[in-house]
């Protein structure tokens, strides 16, 4: 039986086919080489600092989702992105998937023109073309979902990402995927607590999986943040960063909210480091 992820990818491949007919791979590759170098998202998320004392926020531009339907109209993604950057977001994630998330590369372009912090192109990356395309639009970070890729694809796409000067957020949902991400050489490892088969959110998954990750990679807690208590919980369990969509796009003051998440996260990290010493 096909999963939600399988169904999303069928649509992604169809849309990709249309774009490839409009702009062939050679042309998109050339466009990628014309861009200024990618910003260093790894450094922005804490880099090699040890221990990482700050809680970084990846703030997402997310209009709708398969699990919740419509979340926010976001008529002006550039304005939202400026709010995120002013609030202290380290990276902005822009969903570019059209059918289920109502995202687009036009949204991405609008955000790219508005802010000078690293941008994550959040999509379902299954073909080499999308990586050149991401870079051609000014992406600094791309998403690699371990559940959507086999070991060879994961490694090859990670290499291609690095060759293009970008970083990758390698997203995992299970112990096995964490091990595969580490084996592929992920430097930024996400634990997404939203089950892609049932779409249920189970925050307890984060602690279980984060506990397997050795020191080194940046650990990102993805999904399920409702407020600063959840951020503090993730940070206390090892998160260096949180990726937040719904709780920001549905909030009246995302700027204040991000600052609050950073404060609460930093306190929880300090407590975790104190417990360890
Ligand atoms: O959000 C969904 O319903 C969803 C369904 C299927 C695949 C991916 C999905 N979301 C992508 C994400 O990873 C989230 O947008 C991101 O982690 C932020 O989550 P949240 O803060 O819970 O909006």
From TrEMBL:
One of its GO terms (molecular function) is indole-3-glycerol-phosphate synthase activity. NCBIfam families: PRK00278.1-1, PRK00278.2-4. Residues 5-259 form the Indole-3-glycerol phosphate synthase domain. InterPro entries: Aldolase_TIM, Indole-3-glycerol_P_synth, Indole-3-glycerol_P_synth_dom, Indole-3-GlycerolPSynthase_CS, RibuloseP-bd_barrel. This is Indole-3-glycerol phosphate synthase. The keyword S-adenosyl-L-methionine does not apply. It catalyses: 1-(2-carboxyphenylamino)-1-deoxy-D-ribulose 5-phosphate + H(+) = (1S,2R)-1-C-(indol-3-yl)glycerol 3-phosphate + CO2 + H2O. PROSITE patterns: IGPS. Pathway: Amino-acid biosynthesis; L-tryptophan biosynthesis; L-tryptophan from chorismate: step 4/5. Belongs to the TrpC family. It is an enzyme of class 4 (lyase). Keywords: Amino-acid biosynthesis, Aromatic amino acid biosynthesis, Decarboxylase, Lyase, Tryptophan biosynthesis. Its EC number is 4.1.1.48. It comes from the Bacteria. It holds the Pfam family IGPS. It comes from Sinomonas terricola.
